[in-house]
Amino acid sequence: MQRVSMILIWMLCAIFPLMAQTRVLTGAEQTEKWLPLLRNKRVAVLANHTSMVGDEHLVDMLVRERVDLAGIISPEHGFRGTADAGEKVANSVDERTGIPVWSLYGAHPRRLSPEQLQQFDVIVVDMQDVGLRFYTYYITMLDAMAMCADCNYPIIVLDRPNPNGMYVDGPILDMRYKSGVGALPIPVVHGLTMGEIARMAVGEGWSKPVELTVIPCANYTHSMRYTLPVAPSPNLRTQHAVCLYPSTCLFEGTICALGRGTDWPFEMYGHPDMQGCAFVFTPRSVAGAKNPPLLNRECRGVDLRGLPDEEIIAAGFNLEYVIDAYRRLGVGEKFFTPFFEKLVGVGYVREMICAGASAAEIRARWQDDLQRYMKLRQKYLLYGE
Question: How far apart, in whole angstroms, are the C-alpha atoms of residue 22 and residue 254?
Fold first, then answer.
């Protein structure tokens, strides 16, 4: 018995250090690699509520480390991550530290003023992205890169894993549809981290030349199933929603509701006039969704909450949900809004749906472009597949 106990103790002693070594470390957690780069620098951080270093927020950690923190640059949803999608966010002051917060999501153009730009020497980027072309955090990073290029400032990206990084799918953005929800000629599900996107933008000349440093994650590969420790935005509340989001977000460009104003946004879809559906939900005005589509109207639709995540991942960028709703409603072109093309990135998807094409037939249309992108992507990967 004593021998068995000793063997168990030995096994535990061997396993626990191995587990510690293989835990994914974000770029922000590897402070020894980037804090020295900030000494004697005036620093601005592009950050939000996801910018956690262990149990401590990046901003609080920098203040504790006596870094000269001049300002906080905030993306969509604001520094605290509470604003609605697309809501303009004003400049403010962080109550905890007294540091000014400069919003890029209410500015036109999305750029700091000359006076703000003179207050720092380097930008540090640390935000949790979800790996989709229409998720706006990477676009705000590109704005920060442009400002650094113009001012000859360096930019440091503290990388984080991509929770949808295990596959690549969807049409490549036709730059005629470039917008605030699509800035680069990449597919909907691009399979890159923020650091890899930054490297690609510079390498392909999509960004002005800039002194870019990326602090990679440790112990991460794109094949991993990475569970987000913090909800990245007000309506992506669950890992299940993050998995569905590539496909269900397209409903933002239709007359349907997708669960905003319920406890399960992006995990359902419906409309008051949808036929043949037993599932019912009613969007309400709630925090993070003050005026959701079809507010206070009973919607009949489809509940995706029970769909296994692995099944969602295997299906990839899936047009079947949108096609299903389109056919059930039977209103033709009126089903779509102009925002649909900005999300899907091309004109032919709407055209093919209206012509009666299946999801598989539409998917075949983007395969050649996707293969060319996959070869390009290889040049900029920091992590194994």
Answer: 43
CATH number of residue 96's parent domain = 3.40.50.12170
Closest CA to 377 of 213, 218, 184, 246: 184
pTM over 0.70: yes
pLDDT in tens, 75-121: 876 686 554 555 556 788 888 899 999 988 765 678 999 999 999 99
pLDDT digits (tens, 9 = 90+) for 173-212: 999 999 999 999 999 999 999 999 999 999 999 999 999 9
Tokens representing 80 are 């605290």
Tally of domains in the chain:
2
* Cα–Cα dist 85/106, whole Å: 12
CA nearest to 225, candidates 317, 149, 309, 163: 163
Q: In 3-state terms, what secondary structure has residue 43? A: strand
- Residue 290's domain spans which residues? 239-354
Tokens 């072109």, residue? 333
Spatial contact of 293 and 307, defined as CB atoms under 8 Å apart: no
| Alpha carbons 308 and 200: distance in angstroms, whole number | 33
The CA radius of gyration of the chain, in Å to the nearest whole number, is: 22
Cβ-based neighbour number of residue 4 at 10 Å: 8
